[in-house]
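Regression test case RT-17, inverse folding.

Input:
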């Protein structure tokens, strides 16, 4: 019960890995501030989490809007002991064909809002001399990703950024951890329009979000700098480290391209 008075703020907390992380914090008696776009989904999630006997505050914000990200910082008047930047999105397709505004929204959410929230709450943590930050990266951050070029690039930023500020603040009492899952069984692929991608077709190959969240939570509490969730994903990253980036990009192109396209190309 030592964490009874501590508070974790989690973005993207109403589904997938974010929701599973919220359950883990709640089980350890952290009070929660959960942030997502849908007030209705937040209320349902809060009702599930409150059975752990904790306080749950809900704040509805679209963090792809920079003004709403700044407003979130101003609205939180409780000391945040743990910041979890989980909210993120992608879009599937060739870069030349994808809608520019949607890709800019991905950059705003996956990068800009993460920087805004991290800067605000880390400044407060630094004054207190303690705190924890968990940033949702991805193995995508280590792998150039055709068919998801912008998403993969944003996750490369998250990994580099988190590693750099961890070094800057290594004596501050604040820890920074990157959670790097691979393809996970969440609504991400549906929202990104990836249902026709080869990587999504093999449901058995997708990680369980509860397992991913547990890996991330344990790494965060241990103060680890990063964790790649899942043996297969660790192996993929290790293999990519031995290959030229151009070869890695080609491999990812083949893994992520539409199933229909592959079948059509095999027709004589």
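Golden output:
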């Amino acid at each position: 019960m030592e964490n009874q008075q501590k508070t974790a703020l989690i973005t993207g907390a109403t589904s997938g890995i974010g929701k599973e992380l919220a359950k883990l914090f709640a089980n350890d008696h952290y009070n929660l501030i959960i942030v997502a776009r849908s007030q209705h989904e937040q209320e349902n999630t809060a009702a599930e989490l409150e059975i752990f006997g904790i306080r749950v505050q809900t704040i509805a914000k679209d963090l792809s809007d920079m003004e709403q990200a700044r407003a979130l910082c101003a609205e939180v008047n409780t000391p945040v002991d743990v910041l979890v930047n989980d909210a993120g999105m992608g879009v599937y397709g060739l870069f030349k064909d994808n809608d520019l505004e949607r890709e800019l929204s991905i950059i705003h959410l996956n990068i800009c809002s993460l920087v805004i929230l991290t800067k605000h709450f880390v400044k407060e943590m630094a004054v207190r001399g303690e705190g924890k930050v968990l940033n949702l990266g991805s193995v995508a951050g280590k792998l150039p990703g055709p068919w998801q070029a912008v998403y993969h690039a944003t996750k490369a930023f998250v990994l580099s950024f988190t590693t750099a500020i961890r070094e800057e603040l290594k004596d501050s009492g604040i820890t920074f951890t990157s959670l790097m899952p691979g393809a996970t069984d969440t609504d991400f692929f549906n929202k990104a329009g990836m249902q026709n991608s080869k990587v999504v077709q093999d449901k058995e190959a997708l990680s369980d979000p509860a397992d991913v969240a547990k890996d991330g939570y344990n790494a965060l509490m241990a103060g680890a700098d990063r964790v790649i969730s899942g043996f297969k994903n660790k192996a993929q990253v290790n293999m990519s480290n031995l290959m030229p980036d151009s070869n890695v990009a080609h491999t990812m192109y083949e893994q992520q391209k539409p199933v229909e396209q592959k079948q059509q190309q095999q027709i004589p």
